[in-house]
Amino acid sequence: MYEFLLPIGSIVKLNGFGKLLMIFGVLQNSAADTNVIYDYIGVPYPEGHYDSKLHVGFNKGDIEEVIFRGYEDNNDERKSFLVSLDIAAMFQEKLKKEKRQGE
User: Fold this and answer.
1) Which helix (H) or strand (E) holds 87?
2) Helix, strand and coil in the chain, % to nearest 5
3) Bridge partners (DSSP) listed for residue 65
4) What is the mean pLDDT of the chain?
5) What is the pLDDT confidence band of residue 2, given thresholds at 50, 70 and 90?
6) Which of 6, 18, 45, 102 would give a disulfide with 22, using CB separation of 3.0 to 4.6 Å?
7) Taking a C-beta distance cutoff of 8 angstroms, is the pair 52, 25 a contact?
């Protein structure tokens, strides 16, 4: 389910966005609306983090070009992380479904 996620450290160009971004997090809640979850959160490149107001939440479909793909380990840590995300997402969907049925 989440195997499409780019690794942190990846540098991307977004559609209609004038600045490159470096991905520093995945599956992050929007600060403005906690019901919205973005695939990624990024900071301007090359500056990096210097003000949390400049964090940019975006989704896979917003990416125009991957400029640089971040580090991926060879010892399956990233793969285990992605499997954990899949399990958590399935559990969350199950809870939402049960909640809707109970209403």
Assistant:
1) helix 77-102
2) 30, 30, 40
3) 13
4) 85
5) low
6) 45
7) no
Give the amino acid at 94: K
For 1, residues 6+ apart whose C-beta sits below 8 A from its C-beta are 85, 86, 89, 90
Q: Which position has the higher pLDDT, 98 or 61?
A: 61
Structure tokens at 71: 């580090």
Rounded Cα distance between 93 and 84, Å, is 14
Q: Cα–Cα distance between 63 and 10 in angstroms, integer?
A: 11
Describe the strand order of the beta sheet including 11-14 as a list of residue ranges. Answer: 56-58, 37-44, 21-29, 11-14, 63-68
Query: How many residues belong to the chain?
Result: 103
